[in-house]
Amino acid sequence: MEPLDDHELKQLLREWTSPPAPRRLGSPWTHRGPLRGWLTGSIAIPAPVALAALVAFLAYLAWSVAGGPPAAPAPAAEPIEPESAVVSLSGFRTVSEVVPRRVGGLE
User: Fold this and answer.
1) What span, in angstroms and rounded, lies between the C-alpha atoms of 36 and 80?
2) Confidence (pLDDT) at 82
3) Which residues, other chains included, contact 16 with Cβ-Cβ below 8 Å and sequence gap of 6+?
4) How far lies 65's CA from each of 5, 70, 71, in Å?
5) pLDDT digit string (tens) for 48-96?
6) Which of 16, 17, 42 is nearest to 28 (CA)?
7) Backbone angles phi, psi at 95, to 5 degrees
8) What is the DSSP string of 17-76?
9) What does the pLDDT look like over 9-61, one tens digit per residue?
10) 4 or 75: which leads in pLDDT
11) In terms of Cα–Cα distance, which of 37, 17, 39 is closest to 27?
12) Can you tell me the distance from the alpha carbon of 54 to that of 60, in angstroms, rounded to the nearest whole number?
């Protein structure tokens, strides 16, 4: 058999038609409506992603349940009496010498 040249091959491909598909390969939507397809459809996700989502959900659930009942409010502080609110600075000493020191940074 001789090899076909480009012109003959193009002509042959223009004339060729594909055979019809068998009936059993019909569209899956022909037997059920589109609404049923949305309601009974499925989404495929990888097993590691599903496992990670499950672990994250269970961790959140455990964290939210382990919180327990809310803590009792702290008792109210005693009011400060005006006499004890006075502060005396009689023993206060001022700084005699200030030495600046650089901490960190580039030298």
Assistant:
1) 73
2) 66
3) none
4) 77, 12, 14
5) 999 999 999 998 888 888 776 667 777 777 776 666 667 778 888 888 8
6) 42
7) -75, 130
8) -PPPPPGGG--GGGSS-HHHHHHH------HHHHHHHHHHHHHHHHHHHHT-SPPPPPPP
9) 888 888 888 888 787 776 655 556 667 667 777 788 899 999 999 999 998 88
10) 75
11) 37
12) 10
d(CA 23, CA 6): 36
Residue 71 CB-half CA count within 13 A: 4
How many angstroms separate the CA atoms of 53 and 10, rounded? 54
Question: Residue 48 has which token pair?
Answer: 């590691």
The predicted model scores a pTM of: 0.32
Amino acid at site 43: I
Amino acid identity, residue 26?
A: G
d(CA 75, CA 70): 15
CA 27, 32, 35, 41 dihedral sign is negative
Residue 29 makes CB contacts below 8 A (sequence gap 6+) with: 37
